[in-house]
Design goal:
mainly alpha; about 325 residues; elongated; single chain
Length: about 325
């Protein structure tokens, strides 16, 4: 037998031995989990968490819970299960596991962590998948998960004000408050465009009453003032305007004299504007929504913008996506 042949045989034998060792080690690591002690399962679970093997960590923690429900690591394994679900992008499962821990261990020293992870499970969901890669506006999506997250964080703050997780939860609540307020304003403006003034008013008033401190509050007061005026509720319009002037004098809906300017047009995209993605047509509806004068009032802190006329965009402006040509202009005034 040649030296080359002996080398090849030796190499094959070594490779077979290594493969056998690897298979044996995998078998020992992936033994039927039911045949391990609680301490061994906990050790395997902790090792899986350290290397971020979340599916395996979930399987092991579930096994500890099923096999040793009253064991030494029963409670801690359920907390680790909450964390593993969260890291494995399973927010619903993480929230359910946190709820179960709260029911089973209401006096546990780490129960504040369960409340915190309940809030985190839905707080982070909007940031996954689409939110990471597309410029989506979270205030224009269903706010149900954000509301639940806000409620969970609020429970943590009220029940465990001294928890180490409280400062972070409070900061996240500020973001969620602003997000929910923005959502209400978006809905209110949707109703305005459809001339559903009472519905728009109720949404704006909800922002003022429930989300004080949010950046959307000035816009909510502007909407309240205008909707009260459109509905003929003059005294309530005056009250809203007074609050707006006192707290937000730099509002864009106050003119240089401090008078409230009532808009006279709504955004109502034409079919041509919609199908051409804004290249052709107009998104303005020349409908004077405001009254020409305020009923039963001669001296009024309101001014009404005249209906605006819009000059057409040139084809050069359309073809160059607004870079060249006449973009169109609006003319109008106030009375």
């Amino acid at each position: 037998m040649s030296a080359l042949q002996r080398y090849r045989n030796s190499f094959r034998l070594t490779a077979l031995l290594l493969l056998a060792v690897l298979l044996a080690s995998c078998g020992s690591n992936d033994d039927d989990l039911a045949n391990n002690t609680e301490e061994r399962l906990w050790e395997l679970g902790e090792r899986s968490i350290q290397v971020s093997n979340w599916p395996r960590a979930i399987a092991i923690m579930q096994q500890i819970e099923a096999q040793f429900p009253f064991g030494r690591y029963a409670a801690q394994s359920q907390l680790e299960l909450v964390h593993a679900y969260y890291m494995n992008n399973e927010p619903e499962a993480a929230r359910a596991a946190a709820d179960r821990f709260i029911r089973l261990y209401p006096d546990h020293q780490n129960i504040d962590y369960a409340y915190y992870m309940k809030g985190m499970s839905f707080y982070s969901e909007d940031g996954r998948i689409l939110g990471r890669y597309l410029p989506t506006d979270p205030s224009k999506r269903d706010p149900g998960k954000a509301r639940e997250s806000f409620t969970d964080f609020s429970s943590l703050l009220s029940l465990y004000p001294n928890s180490p997780y409280t400062p972070d939860a409070r900061a996240r609540m500020v973001y969620l408050r602003n997000l929910l307020a923005d959502y209400e304003i978006n809905v209110s403006e949707f109703y305005i465009n459809r001339q559903a003034y009472l519905a728009a008013l109720n949404r704006a008033r909800f922002v003022v009453e429930n989300y004080q401190g949010a950046p959307s509050v000035p816009r909510a007061l502007e909407i309240m003032t205008e909707m009260y005026l459109r509905l003929g509720l003059n005294d309530l319009a005056d009250q809203s305007l007074a609050i707006l002037k006192t707290n937000h004098p730099d509002s864009p809906q106050l003119d240089q004299n401090g008078d409230f300017v009532v808009s006279t047009q709504i955004t109502d995209p034409s079919f041509l504007y919609s199908v051409s993605f804004g290249l052709v047509g107009s998104n303005k509806k020349d409908t004077p929504l405001a009254p020409t004068r305020r009923p039963n009032r001669d001296d009024t802190p309101y001014s009404f913008a005249m209906p605006q006329t819009e000059t057409e965009r040139s084809w050069l402006n359309v073809l160059t996506f607004g870079v060249l040509g006449n973009p169109g202009s609006q003319a109008g005034g106030s009375q």
